[in-house]
Amino acid sequence: MDPISSSPHVLIFPLPLQGPIKCMLKLSECLCLAGLEVTFLNTVHYHHRLLSCTDIQSHFARYPRFRFETIADGLTEDNPRTGDRVMELFDGLEAMTKPLFREMLTSGSLSSESRRPVTCIIVDAMLIFALDVAEQVGIPLFYFDTISPCGLWTYFCLPKLIDAGELPFKGNDLDAPIKSVQGMEGFLRQRDLPSFCRASDLTDYQLKFAMMEIQQVPRARGLILNTFKELDEPFLSQMRSLCPNLYPIGPIHTHLKTRLNAEPTLPPPSSTSLWQEDQSCMIWLNAQPFKSVIYISIGSLSMMTSNQLMEFWHGLVNSGHRFLWVRRPNSIVGENRVGPIPKELLEATKERGCIVSWAPQEDVLAHPAVGGFLTHSGWNSTLESMVEGVPMLCWPSFVDQHVNSRFVSEVWKLGIDMKDTCDRVVIEKMVKDLMDVRRDEFLQSAERLAKLAKQSVSEGGSSFCNLKCLIEDIIRLM
Ligand code: UDX
């Protein structure tokens, strides 16, 4: 049999946001390396950004059976697509992308009349509409949930929380313990649940969306997760009772790097950034002492107010530590209202700081000069930090980030949870704790988990085997 015509064709469709696009591109490359045909469906807006900020097109040109396709996201081109307007994106996807997706699969560019039939679809679990479309056209669908499994498990427990009367919250004590999330009793508080649980009633849009997501996920052929068995087994075994075909294949960004170590002739992984990476920070890092720098980034969607910006800035400067700070364009609410910057902040920043608008984050975290990460606890950032053994100071904004930061501090012992606080005195103290006072304690756990993470994607490791199993299951669908 001709091996080319006998290989499956996988359609990959990420949620159009930085984190999911990155995860799905990494997965696409893993599948291409296994000889599968892959179509990567990206929204028009983000596809243009990806092409203008990276060399992704030439990187994937080496895989003759890979191709990009694009689809509209239902937003006007002048929509800023910022974190505070993310719900507009979901409305746009439902109103415009869903019918276009159906049309693409039934009579358009992905229908079997126009090209090789699609064997299966892998979509982000938040694109819940895709399952109905897939069922209508008779194509098996796998969900890839790119948020954290501990966060996802709290979604699965939402009905229990409601039945037990723990949701909506009673009273104003966000430190009140939560009892109805199996496996998290004893350390989960109201403030650690996903941000939308703070809504005053059950009609909240995001809460309803999460409930729809968990109803839909078990109907899929399988659920792919960006984690490794050794990290999340308690939740994975509980999820398996709802979704038996579970594939924990993470940390997804580490597979290609591990493979590159074993086969140095492979090209280095491509950037997947939707903003232009400023490489000058790597030169700056080269001149800094070992583990002396705290890296600050709040990811691709989180925002801070101009007040919070000043609290962070003072806290960082007063800690006396060196810092590399990503200030993403449009990430400061009311930036134009930031008054004159005090001279001592500007001088200290010039002396021991570096500010960029977007950094090559994985390289930054792997740099020997970086000793800590002040993060918004997005799941990709958390895993990237974990793989490099970098302790974290967590300042979560929304969705799973509140759960992740609690796990970082209470379960994995990788750092400090600073949620719901933004005060220069606290920031100064916590930066000092992270970088000096409690550094050895965090480094011990960080080194242990980094080793486990890397082992999981190495030949014979749990995620290596689960990825192989996913590929075999896809091949069996033909
Ligand atoms: C969103 C949600 O906020 C998060 O809770 C969920 O877990 C995933 O989706 P996002 O804000 O995109 O996350 O954060 P994260 O998941 O951490 O992903 C950000 C990605 O951007 C990381 O892979 C990181 O390496 C990359 N990044 C960030 C850069 O490459 N450069 C930067 O300067 C900042």
UniProtKB/TrEMBL annotation:
It is an enzyme of class 2 (transferase). Keywords: Flavonoid biosynthesis, Glycosyltransferase, Transferase. The keyword Transferase applies. PROSITE patterns: UDPGT. Pfam families: UDPGT. Its EC number is 2.4.1.-. InterPro entries: UDP_glucos_trans, UDP_glycos_trans_CS. One of its GO terms (biological process) is flavonoid biosynthetic process. This is Glycosyltransferase. Belongs to the UDP-glycosyltransferase family. It catalyses: 7-deoxyloganetate + UDP-alpha-D-glucose = 7-deoxyloganate + UDP + H(+). GO terms for molecular function: 7-deoxyloganetic acid glucosyltransferase activity; quercetin 3-O-glucosyltransferase activity; quercetin 7-O-glucosyltransferase activity. It comes from Actinidia rufa. It comes from the Eukaryota.
